[in-house]
Amino acid sequence: MLPVDLEMFWKDDESAHKDNCFNADSPQVALGIRMSDECVFAELGEEGNPWGYTPREFRIELNKRYNDKAEKIVGKRLLKEEFPTKDETFPKIKQIGEVFGGRYEDNNNSIWLHGSCTTPQELEKVLDKVDKMDIREFMLPPDWESEKKRIFETYGKKPKLLRHVRGPVTLAMSIYGDINLIYLIYDIPDLAKKFSETISDVIIKMGKVMDEEAGYGPGEAPHGFSFADDNCSLLTPEMYELFGYPVLKRVFNYWSPNEKDKRFQHSDSEMAHLLPILSKLNLTGCNFGPTVLVDEIRKYMPRTRINGCLAPFTFMSNDENKIIEEVKRDCIMAKECKGLNLLTAGSINNGSLLTSMRAVMYAIQNYGRY
């Protein structure tokens, strides 16, 4: 294995994460990689579906064995080893795509959102229906109140807040179609604006419902919000400013009004053309595609923590030389500006090995010292 001083690395990494990875006294670039539950199968040579269902007890066993191996290779236990039982799990609530008439399908590979309309006339009917909808009644299942009470009294647990959703462009293209949305923005901009406004209305309404269900009064709930919007890359800057930007701006204004409140955008696609617009949102964190690099992001976002920019497929290839090459590139760029949290520019997939994580650590310790 590549030589890494593990004790020194993790001590320095703790310092590197302070001040949103802009710590003036940080000795090195921060490491954001902590692997994922998907990775246990290839690492341990076990059969299973990385994206499908794994029985709870088997999942705990896999993660413990994985962590035993991780301690030896990277010096830290990475994956959680405690998972809630079915008895302490809240009933499933409806998701934002369902509010707009969509249908989620788990195909044992991903969760796919099927659309609900394809013409402007059908979209108008969907939006009218959403405007009249009682969001709370629609979201929460019939047994919600009794189960919420039972789980709190038995386990002391409250429902989770809603602080992350599918981004507005990806959501809209799932509901209405990618090409359809592009034509809509060009041909009927007023209806496109209505679609955008309704999306932000729904996000805020859904979030407020879950705040109330968790017992928070007005103004009491924790701040912060994040979006995952891969499809934003398909819009021109002008189209994104009309459709996507207003949603993020309104939601961030509501849940992230303070300077240090979380404002995060994930878009693992080629969306560098949108950086000037996104810069107006004062993002505190971002995770963009592997072609959108540190130096380019920094032109527009001088104080945004950059989660990236290692290509996921490079990391999954387990080619240590290529991994070191990309990490070295990012570390050199970060020395001028800090604020880099070394991560993959997208998901960490099954097949990515612990030795690849160690290669990233080696590169940081050798090329990422400030």
TrEMBL record:
GO biological process: one example: porphyrin-containing compound biosynthetic process
InterPro entries: Methanogen_methyltrans (IPR052024), UROD/MetE-like_sf (IPR038071), Uroporphyrinogen_deCOase (IPR000257)
Domain Uroporphyrinogen decarboxylase (URO-D): 158-329
Pfam families noted in UniProt: URO-D
MF term (GO), any: uroporphyrinogen decarboxylase activity
Domain of life: Bacteria
PANTHER family linked to this entry: METHYLCOBAMIDE:COM METHYLTRANSFERASE MTBA
Protein name per the record: Uroporphyrinogen decarboxylase (URO-D) domain-containing protein
Source species: Vallitalea guaymasensis
